[in-house]
Design brief:
Radius of gyration: 22 Å
Strand content: over 45%
Largest sheet: 6 strands, antiparallel, barrel
CATH topology of one domain: Pnp Oxidase, Chain A
Order of helices and strands: HEEEEEE
Strand order of the largest sheet: 1-2-3-6-5-4
Helix content: under 10%
Structural class: mainly beta
CATH class of one domain: Mainly Beta
Distance between the termini: 66 Å
Length: about 130
């Protein structure tokens, strides 16, 4: 089936212009609302704090992603929005440890997951490399 081309589809040199789906590109631009680039690497970490029931906990976990202002991880416990949480994150370079950061953050949201875990969004308030 031939494609109809009108004069607005051709450049001055006779090449055919490619049309961009403007609604799709608009959706792609608005899908990412974060102001900072996120690194999606499974950095190992230890996390400790007080859970939703008021019980102290300390767990080993792996980050889903991290940026300069926040991080996301999954835990088997529910955490209260606004609560403080501490993390020790091991930034790896291959198989060996490269550096460790101690982070103080607060919980932005707790998203129950289908597997029973909780997706935890954390805003980074302070950090120090040790």
């Amino acid at each position: 089936m031939p494609i109809a081309i009108d004069s607005t589809d051709v450049t001055l040199s006779g090449e055919i212009k490619l049309r961009r789906d403007k609604s799709r590109s608009r959706r792609l631009r608005t899908a990412e609302r974060r102001g900072k680039l996120r690194v999606a690497e499974p950095f190992p970490a230890s996390v400790w704090g007080i859970d939703r029931e008021g019980k102290a906990f300390e767990l080993d976990c792996v980050l889903d992603n991290i940026s300069s202002t926040g991080l996301y991880l999954r835990l088997p416990r529910s955490l209260k929005s606004g609560a403080e949480v501490n993390l020790a994150i091991n930034f790896m370079n291959g198989q060996r440890k490269h550096s460790t950061a101690v982070v103080l953050g607060h919980i932005l949201r707790d998203e129950p997951q289908a597997d029973g875990r909780h997706g935890i969004a954390v805003a980074i308030k302070e950090h120090h490399f040790i």
